[in-house]
Amino acid sequence: MILKIGTRGSKLALAQSNWVKEKIEARHLHVRVELVRIRTKGDKILDSALSKIGGKGLFVKEIEDALIRKQVDLAVHSMKDVPSDLPEQLMLAAFPLREDPRDALISRGDKTLDQLPKGSSVGTSSLRRAAQLLHIRPDLNVVPLRGNVDTRLRKLGSGDLQAIILAAAGLKRLGFSNRVSQIIPVEQVLPAIGQGALGLEVRRDDEDTLHLLDFINHKSTEVTVKCERAFLKELEGGCQVPIAALAQVDEGCLILQGMVAELDGSTLIRNQITGHKDRAEETGSALARELLQSGGGKILEGIYGRGDS
């Protein structure tokens, strides 16, 4: 049996897809897995901030289209790239064990976030990171930074940047953990929804592939990611909005932290809620509604209004 995985062509995407390929082939000896590289809109447009390109699913839509057309059988996504609404024909079939969801700081001189000199330029492509960074360090100069992990590391080495922020999970998967100056505590910067987690997407009616993937699903990862995605869906958020959340399972309890901020970090509304792990999506939605009522709704209206003008 040949199983085709649709994947982006970046080193990180290929590392993640190859990991899934090896797991499937080791478990199912009758299956041979092939990787099919697909360029997404987000890969093609590198000279603009993601928030300015517009639309959702910048790194997944073309792969989902290939799934629907049966050109591939399975998609391996970084969950932070996947919109809260999926095409009707598709579903997320499995969530492997989550890697570290936190953000990592890589800086000249191995300084931590608190140690960066006043006025330091910090590169990030994320409005979420920028808003939280400016909230705790309004004296920093946040600079837009696009490109894959290698490109961003090169720009730190050759440019005027004093530091960059990347996902800890991606750095670990690519063998760059030794470059990390600080794993940023979630008390300072909450991660993106689904950060550090992979999602395996298939066609709903493809029972053969669904059965192949049962073994790779990690239940606590599934619970936490579904909770965070329900939070995102309630807020109708995309990459152009500073929204963050992190869910964790602790002895049957589900603890969710969530955040909405102004683009410049001047206002940041953050809260935490505890629910039961069997009510993941209800917990995510409940915290989102709390934040909306606490001023998050006004922030989002202002941001969406600016985007329309």
Write the layout of secondary structure elements.
Elements: E1 2-7, H1 11-27, E2 32-37, H2 41-44, H3 50-53, H4 61-68, E3 74-78, E4 90-94, E5 103-107, E6 121-124, H5 127-136, E7 141-144, H6 149-158, E8 163-167, H7 168-173, E9 182-183, E10 198-203, H8 207-212, H9 219-235, E11 243-250, E12 253-261, E13 268-276, H10 280-308
Parallel strand pairs: 1-2, 1-3, 6-7, 6-8
Antiparallel strand pairs: 3-10, 4-10, 5-8, 5-9, 11-12, 12-13
Helix pairs in contact: 9-10
What keywords describe this structure?
single chain; 309 residues; alpha/beta; D-Maltodextrin-Binding Protein, domain 2; Double Stranded RNA Binding Domain; 3 domains; 5-stranded mixed β-sheet; globular
Shape: globular
The profile of the biggest β sheet is: 5 strands, mixed
At the fourth level of CATH, the homologous superfamily of the largest domain is Periplasmic binding protein-like II
What is the subunit arrangement here? single chain
- Rg, Å, rounded: 19 Å
The SS-based structural class is alpha/beta
Q: What letter string, H or E per element, gives the SSE order?
A: EHEHHHEEEEHEHEHEEHHEEEH
Helical content (DSSP H or I, runs of 4+): 25-40%
Number of domains: 3
Q: How do the strands line up in the largest sheet? A: 2-1-3-10-4
Strand content: 15-25%
**Count of alpha/pi helices:** 10
Number of strands: 13
In the CATH hierarchy, the third-tier topology of the largest domain is known as: D-Maltodextrin-Binding Protein, domain 2
CATH architecture of the largest domain: 3-Layer(aba) Sandwich
Instruction: List the uncertain runs.
Output: none
The termini sit apart by 52 Å
CATH class division of the largest domain: Alpha Beta
